[in-house]
Amino acid sequence: MDSDFEHLRHKPPTALDQPRELIVACCPMRSNVNISRIVRAASCCAISKVIVCGNVKIDPKIARDGAENLPVSRHRSLAPVLRDLKKDGYMLVGLEQTTNSQDIHHFPFQRKTVLVIGNERQGITDDILVLLDATVEIPVYGMPYSYNAATATCMALYEFCRQFPEG
């Protein structure tokens, strides 16, 4: 083994040149675990903010540092918030399987995007779908026909970061 090799397990990340202008907006969810996993992943990806609706609680044991370092805003209804973000120049992209959804591997995200995450069982409701500029889906190769909401969000966050590695 090369004696000059040093393995750094937890090498600190380099600072982003500019903060990512991605916002994650979650429709009302049932699971505290899902929302906590989403907050943790969003923090790992240096996302600017997470918006949550409904009565879920973020579990600090699951979200870990994300619960402390990431701005999380709570709202009663998602539609008015999305309308305001759209006026501010954000592209609204739903993570949902729809007739016109695009494969996430071929979708060109814009730097200023709101990624809308649906409810675990019902997905994104019709009143929110009509507000979206686009929907993306992650290919599924077996049963069930969709990934868990938190898992799919992690995959979508990774794809956004792959397209914008410097922030």
From TrEMBL:
Signal peptide: none annotated. One of its GO terms (molecular function) is RNA binding. SUPFAM superfamilies: alpha/beta knot. Keywords: Methyltransferase, Transferase. GO terms for biological process: tRNA methylation. Residues 22-158 form the tRNA/rRNA methyltransferase SpoU type domain. The keyword rRNA processing does not apply. This is tRNA (Guanosine(18)-2'-O)-methyltransferase. It comes from Bremerella alba.
